[in-house]
Design goal:
With about 120 residues, the protein is mainly beta. The chain is built from no helices and 9 strands. The N and C termini lie close together (about 5 Å). Keywords: 2Fe-2S, Iron, Iron-sulfur, Metal-binding.
């Protein structure tokens, strides 16, 4: 296994991210609710740069009695990233797709030593 030094822990603020090259791979590191999560920068849909997409709260579309959506609501507890190529959404903590459950992001391992973040591949 190889380790790649990314940055110091305090360089990634809550709600922030850093995308880095680790050998021939790109990894996105996100801080959500104080915890770090690392994902391979490849959307499972069409291999787009998922980690460079827009970050926002989970969108909920409540359906009324006529089975119509009248408004959008946002769940601030679940932050998502949307692929800039086709808009596929994934939960930043779990990697799960907001649509078909068979798709998910591929997690990368992190190590923290002496305040420094390392990606382990």
């Amino acid at each position: 296994m190889a380790e790649y030094l990314v940055c110091s822990e305090d360089e990634i603020a809550d709600g922030g991210r850093k995308v880095v090259a680790c050998g021939e791979r790109e990894i996105g590191i996100f801080r959500v609710k104080g915890a770090l999560h690392a994902w391979h920068n490849m959307c499972p849909h069409r291999q787009g740069p998922i980690c460079q997409g827009r970050i926002y709260p989970q969108v909920i579309e409540p359906v009324d009695e006529r089975r119509e959506v009248r408004t959008l609501q946002y769940n601030e507890e679940n932050m998502h990233v949307a692929c800039p190529w086709h808009g596929w959404e994934f939960n930043l903590e779990t990697g799960r797709n907001a649509g078909p459950a068979k798709y998910r992001l591929h997690r990368a391992e992190l190590a923290i030593r002496e305040g420094q973040i390392y990606v382990v591949l």
